[in-house]
Amino acid sequence: MVLNDKRIRIIVGHFGSGKSEFSINYAVKLSQVKKKVVLADLDIVNLYFRSREKEEELKKLGIKVIGSSIKGLAADLPAISSEIYGPIQDESCDLVIDVGGDPNGARVLGMYSNYFTKDNYDMFFVLNGNRPETQTVKKSIEYLRKIENTARIQVTGIVNNTHMLKSTTYKDVLKGQALAEKLSQELNIPIRYISVIEKVVKDLPDNLEGEIFPIKLYLREEWMV
After folding, report:
1. Is residue 210 assigned to a domain?
2. Which helix (H) or strand (E) holds 151?
3. Domain that holds residue 188
4. Alpha-carbon gap, residue 137 to 189, rounded angstroms
């Protein structure tokens, strides 16, 4: 279904929602069917678990990673590379943009909002129903609207990514799905994906709204819980 999404895919969500894991997995899946894939890490808020930390691994899969204009993992200054303009304007390129995990983090999108049209982008709101700030429909709507207002573009799809890291069970996913469905109904925004670690997929019913999207935890080392 990634082929049905718009050429530019923007991934937003609360800090800890798992948006960077989803972004990486999305780019990997996209690279299996597309020749020119770029993952742009525009997260200037979170200093940990950033998609650009997997640049070498992703490069081996044919995915170009754009991050800070100041090279080096120790350089945590909020400097966005001007390279991003290339894939935004190159219609032969499939672009995934991982955006900072709060409304302030989404502010960087405002720099490029003139380049986004309803025909060339999707913006996916990654929802983790286990996060205190997005545990209810009301809170989730408030958070989503703040991101939209700051980014100056609209969310086009919801991603249920309700998890407890490696301890995630199907109950966590279904809890988040109920929340995502209510949010979808309130805002008339479709659920596009149900992002879930691979071992849980077999436990999910096959009649859920949205496409089940199995993911690997690229940003969690084996020793991490």
Report:
1. yes
2. helix 137-151
3. 2-215
4. 13
220 domain-assigned: no
The tally of domains found in the chain comes to 1
| 221 located within any domain | no
For 64, residues 6+ apart whose C-beta sits below 8 A from its C-beta are 37, 38, 39, 87
Instruction: Render pLDDT for 23-39 as a digit per residue (tens, 0 to 9).
Output: 999 999 999 999 999 99
Q: Please write down the long-range contacts of 203-207, taking CB distance under 8 Å and 24 or more positions apart.
A: 203/169, 203/170, 204/170, 204/173, 204/174
Token digits of residue 98: 């991982």
Is 136 within the bounds of a domain?
A: yes
> What is residue 75's predicted lDDT score, i.e. its pLDDT?
44
Distance CA 205, CA 184 (A): 19
168's tokens? 């995630």
List, for residues 117-162, the tens digit of each pLDDT value. 999 999 999 999 998 889 999 999 999 999 999 999 999 999 999 9
Structure tokens at 100: 């900072």
What is the pTM assigned to this prediction?
0.90
